[in-house]
Amino acid sequence: MKLLKQLQAIACGEIKEDIDLSKYTSYKIKAKAQFLIVPKNIDQLKKLLHFLKENQIKHMIVGGGSNIVFTKDYYNGVLISLREFNDLKINDQKVQVGSGYYLKRLAYLLARRGLCGLEFAAGIPGTLGGAVYMNAGAYDSAMSNVVDKIIVLTPELEIKELTKKDLHFAYRSSWLQKNKDFICLQVFLNLEKGSADDSLLLIEDRKKRRLLSQPLNYPSAGSVFRNPPNDYAGRLIEELGLKGYQIGDAKVSCKHANFIININHASGTEIKELIETIKAKVFEKYKIDLIVEQEFID
């Protein structure tokens, strides 16, 4: 109660207490968190972070919750959502977007405007900031193909610009992953002019293909492992006969072996244990150390 009153006193945004994390993670994990706070602007975000750091209160930024696994039943700290950071400015082929903008929504909107280059992202869950953080990609394209620069909040709570070169994009990785105290606030995209009809047809065709090949009717976080060089994680897992393998309510999809699905009320512990089991079995058989795309949160 004391912490709640302190947070309310600093006017740092909308505050939700004792939240159900199944509503904020794509795995729909059975867990809770002490607080979720939604700042409305940079000033509120700065005030909140200053308070949390000064008082050594556990906290983290959450986007769409698409690549995080809470491994305990209760997160004793503050989750910060940047969903209000969703401004959008389009100037010819240059697009400036808040990091809290949902990626799927953005991909469809830009396609309808006849701007090409982000169609690959129409099936990727989560927010734009999260997509830049992990250099999300599909169909041989990735955020590194379209990002020009970003605006971040530094650990010292200063605003700084990082260019594409600064971000050191690589396969499913970026500079931000190694510098987690830098928070992406704005993203600048460079796109190409094209046909809205062609872009939307491409998106819909890929959507049909995903429905056939991916378990979209169950909660998941998309691909669990990065593909190793010149191979596919799903192929390795399938060859081991692990399709359908489960721990508790966490199950390897029978449709796509690189997806773990929540078939009922899976906990983060069950999902983590299943991921670690698959990783160990693949290494034992093939001596390939699969890299996990999901991030485990205690």
Explained architecture:
The chain is an alpha+beta fold. The protein is built from seven helices and 18 strands. It has helices at residues 2-9, 42-54, 103-112, 128-134, 196-213, 233-239, 268-286, and strands at residues 14-20, 32-38, 59-62, 68-70, 74-81, 88-91, 94-98, 115-116, 137-138, 141-142, 147-153, 159-163, 183-190, 192-193, 246-247, 250-252, 260-262, 295-297. The strands form six sheets. A five-stranded antiparallel sheet has the order 6-7-13-11-12, with helices on one face. Strands 1-2-5-3 form a four-stranded mixed sheet, covered by helices on one side. Strand 15 and strand 16 (250-252) form a beta hairpin. Helix 3 runs antiparallel to helix 5. The model has no long low-confidence stretch (mean pLDDT 96).
Number of strands: 18
Spatial ordering of strands, largest sheet: 6-7-13-11-12
Shape: globular
Order of helical and strand elements: HEEHEEEEEHEHEEEEEEHHEEEHE
Strand coverage percent: 25-35%
Mean pLDDT: 96
How do the strands and helices of this protein lay out in sequence?
Elements: H1 2-9, E1 14-20, E2 32-38, H2 42-54, E3 59-62, E4 68-70, E5 74-81, E6 88-91, E7 94-98, H3 103-112, E8 115-116, H4 128-134, E9 137-138, E10 141-142, E11 147-153, E12 159-163, E13 183-190, E14 192-193, H5 196-213, H6 233-239, E15 246-247, E16 250-252, E17 260-262, H7 268-286, E18 295-297
Parallel strand pairs: 2-5, 3-5, 4-18
Antiparallel strand pairs: 1-2, 6-7, 7-13, 8-14, 9-10, 11-12, 11-13, 15-16, 16-17
